[in-house]
């Protein structure tokens, strides 16, 4: 039996590379095995699965030979393909979660079985990749180098087992709204629009609304017992970028309206239709609010872009004028120098005016925040402060910054300079550990080492849902001392020391405001603000 003389160079190269790692043939020729017998009807199949060129005779192996190197390469390709599929799927999930992780974490809070969460599925995939890699390195890599094709064939069951585990996770290739629906369909109705709006960015909230609308569509189909509905069609809507939420809302409104006008609905169905319309109205309102916020951001960005364009225009004009002036310096250098300086001054004035205009626009945008606080930076924190005032029985409708440590210094004297004789104040502090807390009082801070009564005083921790009201009719609500910063309670519950940003002498303790502190804890203050409210 002769080897095909037309075998390509790749095959020959593979044979040469593996030949030195192969064992000698058992025929006694002292040649190394190069071929693999996979014909069960072959007379030598049972006792000589690997053989050398000398054994390629009609009486021993009367069939076309299979190169060990090529079979070994094919088996290696199968394992490497499996490893790469796991890596690609993991990266696909990571890329998607880099934007949409907050949405999946929010939905995780409302599921009963954590095993169905997206992160749990990702961990299963991660463990699968680690198992495959460990098995590959321990059992496969060395056998592949040695070309032990028979032992490699024995690993096929393991390869099939790993592929079966990967098959159970292949639905993650559709990572996006469809996968979220598959995992969280029962949890989606439990998440309120208010919570989603507070905790999610615009891209995440858009996906959340799409899932809620899809859930409503499914509820409507079930209510009408529509047997003609193709669920796959609606699942494709989840992934269709052309299908906007606004378009979906319009179609749902039209459908609900037409159904409500029929005479075929019973009372129970009519009530459920009404609930769907109410939720749809809530979604539409949220979408309108998002559109307003988006337009404001776009307007701000447009103004900044126009400003930058004008600056570039001024710079280009200055460059052209400068070139002209340089050409004129030979005739009148003094005149040219004065003209350049004049133009530069005019440009600086114009640039300053433009910057002031942009700063004013930014200030106008920031004025939407009720508290112009460097501590309460996020909309969620601002909303939480409004809720604290509502719990105290009043609305937070006005604020004026009286004192800020980073601006006026952290000394007690500076605090009293700006805050004495100022009733109705809100104190906000941020510790070096990032904790945000503070308190409210209707009393003013002037006085010499004296307690002041205030039944309406309270303390807060931004991470806690409720305020901590003063007890005992507020007899020891606050302490006025010219050597102290703002200090609340008789214990003291919240004490801000002089030079609180550089000393660990400020502290919290438990005494006058129930539940505020579980014990004494020293603090160093990173920032402090006092507002008139």
From TrEMBL:
Tell me, what's a Pfam family for it? TLD
Which domain of life does the protein's organism represent?
Eukaryota
Q: Which residues cross the membrane?
A: none
Q: What is this protein called?
A: TLDc domain-containing protein
Q: Which UniProt keywords apply?
A: Coiled coil
Coiled-coil stretches: 145-172, 304-360
Question: What is the originating organism of this protein?
Answer: Halteria grandinella
Q: Which InterPro entries match?
A: TLDc_dom
Q: Where is the TLDc domain?
A: 374-533
């Amino acid at each position: 039996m002769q080897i095909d003389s037309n075998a390509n160079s790749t095959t020959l190269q593979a044979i040469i590379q593996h030949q030195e790692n192969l064992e000698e043939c058992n025929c006694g020729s002292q040649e190394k095995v190069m071929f693999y017998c996979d014909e069960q009807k072959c007379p030598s199949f049972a006792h000589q699965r690997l053989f050398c060129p000398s054994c390629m005779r009609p009486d021993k192996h009367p069939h076309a030979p299979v190169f060990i190197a090529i079979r070994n390469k094919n088996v290696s390709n199968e394992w490497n393909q499996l490893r790469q599929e796991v890596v690609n799927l993991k990266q696909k999930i990571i890329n998607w979660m880099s934007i949409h992780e907050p949405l999946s974490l929010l939905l995780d809070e409302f599921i009963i079985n954590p095993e169905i969460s997206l992160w749990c599925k990702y961990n299963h995939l991660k463990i699968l990749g680690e198992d495959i890699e460990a098995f590959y390195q321990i059992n496969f890599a060395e056998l592949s180098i040695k070309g032990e094709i028979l032992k490699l064939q024995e690993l096929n069951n393991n390869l099939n087992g790993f592929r079966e585990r990967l098959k159970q996770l292949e639905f993650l290739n559709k990572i996006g709204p469809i996968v979220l629906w598959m995992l969280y369909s029962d949890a989606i109705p439990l998440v309120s629009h208010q919570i989603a709006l507070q905790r999610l960015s615009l891209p995440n909230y858009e996906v959340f609304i799409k899932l809620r609308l899809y859930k409503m569509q499914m509820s409507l189909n079930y209510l009408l017992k529509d047997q003609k509905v193709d669920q796959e069609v609606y699942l494709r809507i989840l992934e269709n970028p052309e299908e906007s939420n606004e378009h979906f809302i319009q179609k749902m409104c039209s459908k609900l309206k037409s159904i409500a006008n029929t005479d075929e609905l019973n009372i129970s169905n009519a009530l459920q239709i009404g609930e769907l319309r109410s939720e749809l109205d809530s979604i539409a309102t949220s979408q309108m609010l998002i559109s307003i916020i988006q337009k404001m951001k776009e307007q701000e960005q447009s103004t900044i872009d126009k400003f930058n364009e004008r600056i570039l225009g001024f710079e280009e004009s200055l460059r052209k004028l400068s070139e002209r002036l340089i050409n004129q310096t030979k005739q009148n250098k003094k005149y040219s120098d004065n003209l350049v300086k004049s133009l530069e001054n005019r440009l600086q004035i114009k640039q300053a005016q433009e910057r002031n205009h942009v700063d004013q626009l930014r200030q106008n945008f920031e004025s939407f925040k009720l508290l112009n606080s460097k501590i309460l930076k996020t909309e969620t924190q601002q909303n939480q402060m409004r809720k604290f005032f509502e719990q105290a029985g009043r609305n937070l409708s006005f604020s004026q910054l009286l004192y800020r440590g980073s601006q006026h210094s952290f000394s007690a004297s500076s605090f009293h300079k700006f805050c004495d004789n100022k009733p109705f104040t809100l104190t906000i502090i941020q510790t070096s550990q990032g904790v945000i807390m503070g308190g409210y009082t209707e009393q003013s801070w002037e006085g010499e080492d004296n307690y002041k009564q205030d039944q309406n005083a309270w303390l807060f921790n931004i991470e806690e849902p409720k305020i901590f009201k003063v007890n005992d009719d507020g007899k020891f609500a606050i302490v006025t001392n010219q050597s102290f910063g703002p200090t609340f309670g008789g214990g003291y519950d919240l004490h801000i020391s002089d030079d609180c940003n550089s000393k660990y002498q400020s502290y919290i303790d438990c005494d006058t405001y129930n539940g505020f502190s579980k014990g004494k804890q020293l603090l160093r203050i990173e920032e402090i603000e006092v507002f008139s409210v």
